[in-house]
TrEMBL record:
Originating species: Saccharopolyspora hirsuta
Residue intervals passing through the bilayer: 55-79, 100-118
Name this polypeptide is given: cytochrome-c oxidase
InterPro entries: CcO_II, CcO_II-like_C, Copper_CuA, Cupredoxin, Cyt_c_oxidase_su2, Cyt_c_oxidase_su2_TM_sf
GO molecular function: copper ion binding; cytochrome-c oxidase activity; oxidoreductase activity
Name of encoding gene: coxB
Residue ranges annotated for the Cytochrome oxidase subunit II copper A binding domain, each copy included: 130-259
Length: 318
């Protein structure tokens, strides 16, 4: 009996290990995806901070799970009732040291997780003074306006971009610079959400009734085009209320903004976002898809069906 028991446990361990390896391989995940435990890839240091917290939280949970599962299997394998046993196994329900141990360990785990959660949250929500760039985000049914208060067009108005029936609104931003977003809405509650930022925040139409901070900051680490969405059910065409973040290197962004603050000789009007990107693509051979004049992450929809307007303006202006 003892020999059979001695060989049975290692065999179970081998089978369990094989099942685990097959399970990991069957997911089709890359090594990086496995190490992230399903956490999506982000493009900001704030997103990476959240990913780190998630990874170590999962590792801690797995460690606790392994210990608990090990104790369960150990009890099942070595302390089950055998034929001929007459006495009850040794009882531990009034073992004070043991009870203190399994009370103290979870308490310590909770305290440690709370500490690192608070540290990560403070980092993600930090708003240092004097950010490199500022952008005002205005949400309305069912569209977006982005305006840059520090950049002025020849007529003295802030550079602004608003979606239309033919264009998804583009939020053009620089990489490697601290960006401050100020959120608002003109009609109902919407929500500013960029999956690659790993960040979502609601936009409220009445600042005096806003129960959360409407300003946050981040830094985009790499160039690219990233879809943005409204993540708060806001009416009939909520599902179509998308925008696109276009992240450019600082030199490209500076040139883009230089164009946005000038008059386009072809139209005698300030450059629109699409016109500025088109001109930038002509000037820069390394721009490629980043200088596409229109969104590459989705398609527009007929904004004549909108129920609101940006900053009191008519829908469709740019």
């Amino acid at each position: 009996m003892g020999l059979k028991e001695g060989t049975r446990v290692p065999r179970l361990v081998k089978v369990a290990g094989l099942i685990g390896l097959v399970g990991v391989a069957a997911t089709g995940c890359t090594t990086d995806e496995v190490l992230r435990f399903g956490w999506p890839e982000g493009v900001t240091p704030q997103a990476e901070s959240m990913r780190t917290l998630w990874t170590w939280s999962v590792i801690a949970a797995l460690a606790v799970g392994v210990i608990v599962w090990g104790l369960i299997f150990w009890s099942v394998a070595f302390h089950r009732k055998k034929k001929g046993d007459e006495e009850l196994p040794r009882q531990f329900q009034y073992n004070l040291p043991l009870e203190m141990i399994y009370t103290a360990i979870p308490f310590v785990l909770v305290v440690v997780l709370f500490y690192f959660t608070a540290v990560t949250q403070n980092y993600v929500l930090a708003k240092p003074a004097n950010p490199d760039q500022k952008v005002n985000v205005v949400a309305f049914q069912w569209n977006w306006e982005f305006n840059y208060p520090e950049y002025k067009t020849p007529d003295g108005q802030p550079v602004r971009t608003v979606g239309s029936s033919s264009e998804i609104p583009l939020l053009v931003l620089p990489t490697g610079e601290r960006i401050e977003y100020s959120l608002s809405a003109t009609d109902v509650i919407h929500s500013f959400f960029v999956p690659e930022f790993h960040f979502k925040r609601d936009t409220f139409p009445h600042p005096d009734k806003n129960n959360q901070d409407n300003v946050f900051q981040n830094t985009i680490e790499r160039e690219g085009s990233f879809v943005g969405r409204c993540a708060e059910l806001c009416g009939t065409y909520h599902a179509m209320m998308n925008f696109e973040v276009r992240a450019l290197s600082p030199d490209k962004f500076d040139r883009y903004m230089q164009l946005r603050t000038q008059v386009n000789p072809a139209t005698t009007q300030p450059y629109t976002a699409a016109e500025a990107l088109t001109q930038l693509g002509k000037e820069r051979q390394d721009c490629g898809e980043l200088c596409e004049p229109y969104a590459v992450t989705g398609v527009p929809f007929n904004t004549e069906r909108t129920g609101g307007a940006p900053s009191g303006q008519q829908v469709g202006t740019k």
